[in-house]
Design a protein that fits this description.
The longest helix is centred in the N-terminal third of the chain and has 39 residues. This protein is about 75% helix and about 0% strand. The N terminus is likely disordered. With about 300 residues, it is mostly helical.
Amino acid sequence: MTSSTQAPPAARGAGDAGTPAPRRAMKDRAQSTFYWMVWPAVIAFFLFHTVPVLVGIFFSLTNYAGYGAWNFVGLSNYVNLFKDDRVLQAYGFSFLFAVAATVLTNLISLSIAMGLNAKIMARNFWRGVYFVPYVLAILVIGYVFQFFFSSSLPKILSGIPLFADNILTNETWAWTAIVALAVWQSCAFAIIIYLSGLQTIPRELYEAASLDGAKAWRSFRSITFPLISAFFTINVVLSLKGFLQVFDPIVALTNGGPGTATESVTLLIFRGGFSGGEFAYQTANAVIFFIVITIVSLFQFRVLQRREADF
């Protein structure tokens, strides 16, 4: 009789289970390494973001002026914000500015991106040129624009009453100069996003559309825009969120003037909180502003993503 050297099933199972043990050990070490890489970032985020936010919410419930003693006042700061005409005017200006700048930025950026995506001479050169405004310091460029609007433009367009004088001193139209500066710089980043979206569209779709007799506008409406709708959503949300927090262009051009005609919410928070003795009051304003921006961004995502699904 020949003796069988086959291991019993239980032994085979134990051997198979033990075979990938080194692999599991490597996987466990890799996961522990990932944790050690993530935890410092989580701790830093908590210390430099979450803790200041919580401290700010705490002080928004006090009458702290930024110095000296303070007492708890509950929600009175929040209640007073809705009765403050200056705060309401700042919110109105911020939303007017943000909507106008967002619309212009996306219209101009998409048009330029489509031109840069076409077969033109020195295409890469022009792509680099249009990205230059994004890497320039906004305050430096702001002072250049200030000189342009206050000195050069009145001489160039002296025959037009609106531009005959310094438009930055015009209480009604000064905000348009800030929009021009903000749009000029913001278009650079939006163009890059639109270009990345346009390059994902196969050329064959346009060729097939042209064979079917589709004109340029028909191709844009039926092919281009539906296929870059996700990129459009990203640009609109980022643009509106960024423009609602406008600060540097205003400081460079008008510093909130004339009067308080171009005073944004962020500029009001900065002025009142750090030099106006309204630290707790403007901290409450900052909390409200954070909630408003969050709600607006979520609403945008919901509406625009629904439009993407319709396409």
